[in-house]
Amino acid sequence: MNKARIKIVAGSIIILLTLAFLVFTGMKESFVYYFTVSELLEKKDSLYGKGVRVAGKVEPGSIVYDSRNLNLEFNIMDDSHRVRVIYHGILPDLFKDNADVVVEGEYHPSGLFKASQLLAKCPSKYEARYEEKKKSRDSK
Amino acid sequence: MTDLGYYCMMIAFLFSSYAFLGPYMGLSRKGVMLRSVENAITAVFVLLTVASIALLYALVTRDFQVEYVANHTSRELPLFYTISAFWAGQDGSLLLWAWLLSLFSYIVVLQNRYKNRELMPYVISVLSATELFFLILLIFPSNPFSRLPFVPENGQGMNPLLQNPGMIFHPPTLYLGYVGFTIPFAFAISALITGQLGEGWLKSTRGWIIFSWYMLGIGILLGANWAYQVLGWGGYWAWDPVENASLMPWLTGTAFLHSIMIQEKRGMLKVWNMVLIIVTFLLCIFGTFITRSGIISSVHAFARSSIGYYFIVFIIISGAYSFYLVNKRKGGLSSEKHLDSLLSRESSFLFNNLILVGGAFAVFWGTIFPIVSEAVRGVKITVGPPFFNKIMTPIGFLLLFLTGICPLISWSKATWSNFRRNFLIPTISSILFFIILLVAGINHIKAAISFSLCFFVFITILLEYYRGTRARMQLLGEGVIRAFVNLNLKNRRRYGGYLIHIAMLMIFVGITGSSAFSIEKEVVLKKGESIEINSYRITYSDFKIERKINKFIAQAELIVTNNEKQIGIMKPVKAFYLNQMDQPVSEVFIRMGLKEDLYAILAGYEEFGRTAIFKFLVNPLVLWIWIGGAAMTAGTIIAVWPERKR
Lengths: 140, 646
Hints:
The complex is a heterodimer of chains A (140) and B (646). Chain A is of the alpha+beta class and 140 residues long. In chain A, 35% of the residues lie in helices and 34% in strands. Chain A contains three helices and seven strands, in the order H-E-H-E-E-E-E-E-E-H. Helices cover 63% and strands 12% of the residues of chain B. Chain B has 19 helices and eleven strands. Chain B has helices at residues 2-25, 30-60, 67-72, 79-84, 90-111, 120-139, 165-180, 182-194, 200-231, 241-266, 270-293, 307-328, 345-377, 385-405, 416-439, 445-476, 480-490, 492-517, 623-640, and strands spanning 381-383, 519-526, 530-533, 536-547, 551-562, 565-570, 573-577, 585-587, 589-591, 596-606, 611-620. In chain B, strands 3, 4, 5, 6, 7 and 8 form a six-stranded antiparallel sheet that branches. In chain B, strands 2-11-10-9 form a four-stranded antiparallel sheet.
């Protein structure tokens, strides 16, 4: 190998190592756990003060929204558990009873989940409703 | 009609199988055989066209017994969107993929009636293999013509968020790009199979490569624009898996577009180019897969479906076979020349490629990490936008820098005089520019770096235009305008490329401005109250509820003044579609400007608008992203316009 090629290979390796380093540190700094409500409660002791993302449904009737001050409280739930979430800000259009939501924030020892981000997903009815109907017919 | 559509897909399946196996059955009678498989390609195109018309017919006549029609349309849906329902769901969009591929295959056959006769049997075979994969999906797990056992009164309707002009163009454009890359891939594989590893396959597909790259890029921009104008959260890019899925093949495709120049001019990087086009093709399939399988949770909530396994199998098989071929032919792919110097055009292109591919890999890693961590450690971990922003910022800087360097640094070995001629003025002026930015009070250091790099590149390109124009004026005695126009027309590839680079600068400027200096405020206002944001004063003046064709709208009226002068009225809306009254949709109002956009969202209201909740944003320079898209279009047209034959 001539000198120029060594330099080019070295340059390439430096670039790749830098990228790898960036990926690695970026990963460490910005990863968040992604849990269901039950998983969150199971592991809550190790999670205080850490960034967590939780997916679940909005418990019907649990939404309390103070629209003067933009303060929101609601319960996020899965089949067996629920957690009280507090959030400050405007509501996504899709946010309502039974909506699939993802909240990102921290779980506090008081049992409250303080969300800094609230995402609501499109209701799956656009794809799924007839599936259910079909199934119930088949089973008859 | 729907039966007709289904049978057409079945027969297309038979013809595709024949075209796929063609070259392996009749190698002895090549000429006859080739015409015969070419006719099979024509047949597939005709059949899938009929199938597509059948689906359109079912949609337009609102044949709700067809499950796809019932799921995506309703009686109230305007005709415009009823047609776009073709690609609003999984089954229809897979049919669109298959149809586009059959169309492109047909065009390739026409283009190569008298060319590339040794490659063509295998090109057709590879295209048909891909077509077969999509036909299998369409016939078995994802049949758009499948029927319900009953006839619903009305359909589900279309998601209100998709009822927008942006949704008409964004998916098909993206698909044109995804499908388009299948063509250069097929030629690359045929070159590997036949051992005809010269530049023939590259030259024959140059148009397709640029076309696909452009469509993918514009598709991404249209998606960003749709997110900005319709989704209504004030941004245009969220590093959502579906967005990432389209960005990855664009990055590797961009790398490919550049590195094939090195192969054309210097006969180098042959293995690398093969790898790049294979990876780009696989990423296009992977992109379709992510979008359609729901494997990675995304705010684009598409149905989770079983077709994921089909995609995985296809990706593994085609990937393994492709790389097996590359390995087998690596002897024939060796470089004709070697790299001579670290400071040369060859090596700067190589670095540009490494960074683009590295960027694609970082995006890939961040996107699939939740799956990996769940599989390996049993915990689902996601990395959000902070990860991508952190890593893509330095990657963007390096790319910008190389955008300035690559087109101008000398081949083989750069000399000091080359450097002084091309880079001295840009370097000095961009350093000055950087200092001016800091003095002017820009305290966002990353933004200042980004702007200065854009300035650096801009000056290098400007100098090129200047020198070229001056040379023509001196040598040929042309006037300024004529010299400038001719400069572009006589070197279309080069100057089309420069214009595309300028377009990328505009996009970078827009991204930098809006990500570094965006301001947002969420407020509750009573009628008559106002709020200040930047130099704007916004007053909530009026509220009304109106009935439109297929929706009710609640509309707030806001008077905007800038430095005491009224500059406009903004009317953000909350819409309630008749068949989905429980799901309101915000229709944002954006006052666009070259300097900044003022963006208003009506988030909620009470007592018929006595009070209303608003979110306001000031997004600097966003408009430049869309202008960049237009400039990219112009540059691409210049670059692919055929040179006049002499």
